[in-house]
Specification:
With 372 residues, this protein is of the alpha/beta class. It folds into three domains: 7-78, Orthogonal Bundle (DNA polymerase, domain 1); 109-294, Rossmann fold; 299-371, Arc Repressor Mutant, subunit A (Orthogonal Bundle). 43% of the residues lie in helices and 13% in strands. It is built from 16 helices and twelve strands. It has helices at residues 7-14, 22-32, 35-40, 43-47, 54-61, 63-78, 129-145, 159-169, 191-197, 215-227, 242-252, 270-277, 287-294, 316-326, 334-341, 345-357; strands at 82-85, 104-109, 118-122, 150-153, 173-177, 201-205, 231-234, 256-259, 282-283, 332-333, 361-364, 368-371. The strands form two sheets. Strands 1-2-6-5-4-3-7-8-9 form a nine-stranded mixed sheet, sandwiched between helices. Strand 5 (173-177), helix 9 and strand 6 (201-205) form a beta-alpha-beta unit. Helix 1 crosses helix 6, helix 7 (129-145) packs parallel to helix 8 and helix 10 (215-227) packs parallel to helix 11 (242-252). The radius of gyration is 22 Å and the shape is globular. The relative contact order is 0.09.
Length: 372
């Protein structure tokens, strides 16, 4: 009797089907029950799923899909990579609140992608001494206060690599989100930093091996940089650039966005100044302001006595939120609340608004909610 392929091969194969994007892949898994079932289910049953044509079924059944998956799994096992499928507990749970999150990530290293406090630091590749020094000091001070914090960036020139190096220097775990496969390091100049990160952090990507560092891939990876964190900090940016794309995505994901201001005559600060002027980012002046805005310094906010749910007229969903917040006296950031309740943040906001109107919860800076 032949042995069934490992579950990992189906997870990889799901990302290899031509014409199936991340949202389509999730819908397929949900419709048939598992990633294995996508490939083992009868063709007739697959064709009954909305938006699944006979042509797409033929693509799913193609031997080429499984061949590529087997080849990639060999690479994964040889290089001792971690596979993070979106249903795995080690998958970055904040990403599961993002509609276009990858279904599969490849990781090298041993970082915890679900730490209580995660920030993404991004910026121009043409960083100035002003931006670099602020970045280094900002991360160093945060490291003293929150040694378990995780710093995410993209290993690019300028602010990205500055953030990674500052995190390593301060003893923080740091993760680089790559725009290519894990069979290479780009830019090559940052190889030493990348290797150091493997001891206290990780390299992750949604791209399989042999994927080259094309420009569009870096645009795609920006959504992972934005979605993995509680806040995105833009240190410096010109009028156009990937950092501004990351900031826009972060806003669409209900993440806090911060921008370091600069002189109006400085090209490297024009993007940040525009973000602030257009209310797309909070003005970043110092670490204290950041901590206050994120409501991370909860020591000065002692917990107040909780009302008893028994005396409240709550709907089923309101009661679920109440019970979740009751377990966390300092409150919960809305993305973490969504993860705990397995609800999209967009749905949570309406219910939280109702609870605010009932004087059951209060909204705090940084997207934190706690019981009154």
């Amino acid at each position: 009797m032949s042995q069934q392929p490992p579950k990992a091969i189906y997870q990889i194969a799901l990302t290899m089907i031509p014409g199936v994007g991340v949202m389509h892949a999730r819908n397929l898994v949900q419709a048939v029950g598992s990633e294995e079932a996508v490939f083992l289910e009868k063709a007739r049953a697959l064709e009954k799923i909305p938006r699944i044509s006979s042509r797409l079924v033929a693509e799913i059944r193609s031997s080429e899909v499984m061949r590529k998956a087997e080849e990639e799994l060999t690479f994964v096992e040889k290089n001792r990579l971690r596979l993070l499928f979106y249903t795995d507990p080690d998958y970055p749970s904040r990403l599961n609140n993002c509609i276009d999150a990858p279904v599969l990530l490849y990781a090298k290293g041993d970082a915890d992608f679900n730490r209580r406090k995660i920030i993404s630091v991004v910026g121009t590749r043409n960083a100035t001494p002003y931006g670099q020094k602020f970045c280094e000091k900002f991360i160093a001070v945060l490291a003293e206060k929150f040694p378990e914090m995780l710093v995410v960036s993209g290993l690019a020139y300028g602010i990205d690599v500055c953030a990674h190096r500052a995190a390593l220097q301060s003893g923080l775990s740091t993760v680089a989100v790559l725009g290519h496969g894990l069979d290479r390091i780009y830019p090559e100049l940052h190889r030493k930093t990348a290797i150091e990160m493997l001891e206290n952090g990780a390299l992750i990507t949604e791209f399989p091996s042999k994927t080259t560092p094309d420009r569009f891939n870096f645009v795609r990876r920006n959504r992972i940089v934005a979605g993995m964190a509680d806040a995105v900090v833009v240190m410096e940016s010109g009028e156009k650039g990937g950092s501004l794309i990351t900031a826009d995505i972060a806003n669409s994901y209900y993440r806090e966005v911060f921008a370091l201001p600069g002189r109006t005559t400085d090209n490297a600060s024009k993007g940040c100044n525009n973000l602030i002027a257009n209310n797309k980012a909070v003005l970043l002046q110092d670490v204290g302001d950041f901590i206050a805005q994120m409501n991370w310094d909860s020591a000065s906010n002692p917990a107040k006595p909780k009302q008893k749910e028994l005396f409240l007229n709550l709907s089923e969903e309101e009661a679920r939120i109440f019970n979740a917040l009751a377990k966390n006296s300092d409150g919960l950031q809305v993305n973490l609340l969504g993860i705990e309740l397995n609800l999209p943040v967009s749905e949570l906001f309406f219910t939280l608004l109702e609870l605010e109107m009932k004087n059951v919860v209060q909204s705090l800076p940084g997207g934190v909610y706690k019981l009154l």
